[in-house]
Amino acid sequence: NAGVMQNPRHLVRRRGQEARLRCSPVKGHSHVYWYRQLPEEGLKFMVYLQKENIIDESGMPKERFSAEFPKEGPSILRIQQVVRGDSAAYFCASSGDRVGTEAFFGQGTRLTVV
Amino acid sequence: GENVEQHPSTLSVQEGDSAVIKCTYSDSASNYFPWYKQELGKRPQLIIDIRSNVGEKKDQRIAVTLNKTAKHFSLHITETQPEDSAVYFCAATSGGSYIPTFGRGTSLIVHP
Q1: Residues B75-92: tens digit of each pLDDT
Q2: Do the beta carbons of residue B52 and residue B30 sit within 8 Å?
Q3: Does residue B51 contact residue A100 with C-beta atoms inside 8 Å?
Q4: Of chain A residues 22-81, which have a CB less than 8 A from chain B?
């Protein structure tokens, strides 16, 4: 029973390139959340998705960032034209269908923009 | 939306002492309050949670209390050990919403 799987674990991109971060939720979970964590800071909410739908993207920058959770396959967080300020750990979490249940986290993707 | 405040940001204790971390939330409709522990370089993991119909919950050395009227909840760790050293996050989930909103975290350091 695999938990939340994120890949890659580490990603290095040059300024201006695109970063694609993948997240496979716990089997049977249809709710996915992406959080960003800067060094020695908290978990900042970015976006909440259900299968094929973006439910809440209030924490995501309007430009360069996008997310999807297709019917088949993992959730993808995409950052276009990365800048140094995008360097952070990006965590994905998933939860089941009952409101107010545990969110399980993946290991995170550490993005470094050089 | 929900807003969660967490204090202190850093807590340093001697092994065997107790540690208390406090959080407040803004949305009176919040009804689920998990606590996560994040060790250096690792993922956050749930250590204990409490729902709004309960005032206190205990699991061995860890306990959580909830005061719905004052909209605050606390994590209590007794007989702290060096392996308790980590960052602890509180969170609140509003009724009808799935999104956990996290506090900024408390870095707990337990000195042997």
Answers
A1: 999 999 999 999 999 999
A2: yes
A3: yes
A4: 31, 33, 35, 40-43, 45, 48, 55-56, 58
